[in-house]
């Protein structure tokens, strides 16, 4: 019999993030397929009562929490203590948790304290011959594997966007609040704030329907022998404002900036998609002035529909990386696209 | 060196990302076709950690950087020919498989033991750096376990920047969502930092640094202890390339207006 612990954390407003609700749904599906298994919810953070009320009807056997101001901050030392305490109290054999940024940073370390092994970036779970198995990618989304562990407890951190989020009618539930001591050394590290992108440069939107990728071509000499950085900036920013798309970049384009050449001012490494960048999840992606080389396109693994605009009919996108490749000047196309979206006539270059 | 930092960078090696990878079954579990022939590079995010380590060390007199690498030693030697020219460090090599299908728990134990064996280690001055995820397993587990085994509770992942404050405390900038960074402050070492891209460009090759490094690199590779990883607890049911590539519709000679209209319709769908 497997005892499943769903390990969640609250947000500062007492809610549970979408990824958390998705991992709850994943756990419910595992529970129904594993005979005689039971499910317990463990929550860390502040305001756990309101968090629990939204999932109280999920069918969990019990709710266990570590609550308090010191557990509100995403901080390795305190999060690890909280997770360790919940695991020791519940004694689960399987732990399912959302691969949130906060949990990815601490759950494997904390789980190690109770002899558990963790696998991260899980993109699917299934039961085969009564055994729980998980899929995840290796070599930056190039190779997919189905794995399981003989070791218990086993922790699975589930990537967001894989399962539908749980939703249920709010209800009351009994919560067992664990009494957890935090030594002074555990609160020495303090989260003192957040650095936001400058106003108007908030271009990364994880929930956007469309990923718009800009490549180094936007900064290269064009048919008239000149570079057109200002126009490139305007076309891209206008497009983002009109569509609320999320902005991604190739490595070459962000690297040009750190090498001191002309570059789009609102880009940073955080926009980078690919091998050494991110692998976001969006239903659609449009690549512009980007060659579509493998170290870039591995970051597109979870973009369902893909289109690209490139002057080169032999670019990487043409070789099975995109659904449609428009062989065209991205400046001209995007100018027209913006016109169509805004319903106005722009001026020609 | 009495006041500087001791910065230990942990990094494996990975196939050059421009190579085509194909999984195969080997007697010891899944692996890559022609794995030993594939050109390799230092693990990509860990490379940034190395550049950041060298940069931090250059700011505080008496600091020293070690690079601890678990990798097959013949491959490691090839990779070092380039890496040695990028930043000054002392190599600590362990001759060991470095493929993505090995269990991070076993690598972490070897890494932690190797770090502990470095003579003159002073935990009050110690930073352990690495990539926040490897380009092979992409798990983000190894550094956390190294920290747990060494009792290091100041851990940060997805780091893009560290600042030293006037009072000697540190501000660490970790990536969170939507292009934001979380800023954490701490004042007491040791600490573990899993780096994302950081802020430094890849250093140009410097043959002089390369020559200095090579004096310790070659002996370190020669005396590298051989370690086997067993994958005792991890079972692979299947390992495969993703399903068929897309059939790309290549649209040539379509007027710009029409392309734009098609794209707008597609976005609106
Ligand atoms: C270890 C390692 C890690 C890497 N990690 C990453 C990574 O994480 N992400 C990443 O992106 N890359 C990564 N790369 C680099 C990758 O191999 C490519 O070099 C990079 O993606 C190329 O960027 P690009 O396509 O923007 O630029 P380029 O290769 O310079 O291509 C520019 C493109 O713009 C097109 N173009 C120019 N003008 C126009 C126009 N007017 N209209 C339409 N098209 C136009 C050109 O035809 C060309 O195809 C990595 C490489 C290595 C070795």
Walk me through the structure.
The complex is a heterodimer of chains A (349) and B (269). Chain A is α/β, with parallel strands linked by helices. Chain A has two domains: 3-187, 3-Layer(aba) Sandwich (Rossmann fold), CATH 3.40.50; 210-348, Rossmann fold (3-Layer(aba) Sandwich). Chain A is built from nine helices and 15 strands. Chain A has helices spanning 18-33, 48-53, 76-90, 101-104, 107-112, 229-243, 251-258, 294-297, 330-342, and strands at 3-9, 38-45, 62-67, 94-98, 117-128, 131-138, 143-149, 154-158, 175-177, 190-195, 210-214, 246-249, 282-288, 303-310, 324-327. In chain B, strand 10 and strand 11 (181-186) form a beta hairpin. Chain B has a single domain, classed as HUPs (Rossmann fold, 3-Layer(aba) Sandwich). In chain B, the strands form three sheets. Chain B has a nine-stranded mixed sheet with strand order 11-10-9-12-8-1-6-7-13, with helices on both faces. A two-stranded antiparallel sheet of chain B has the order 2-5. Chains A and B meet through helix 3, helix 5, strand 5, strand 6 and strand 7 of A and helix 1, helix 4, strand 9, strand 10 and strand 11 of B. The structure holds flavin-adenine dinucleotide (FAD).
Summed up:
The complex is a heterodimer of chains A (349) and B (269). Chain A has 349 residues and is α/β, with parallel strands linked by helices. Chain A has nine helices and 15 strands.
Tell me the number of structural domains of chain B. 1
* Small ligands present: flavin-adenine dinucleotide
From the alpha-carbon coordinates, what is the Rg of chain B to the nearest angstrom?
A: 21 Å
CATH class designation of the largest domain in chain A: Alpha Beta
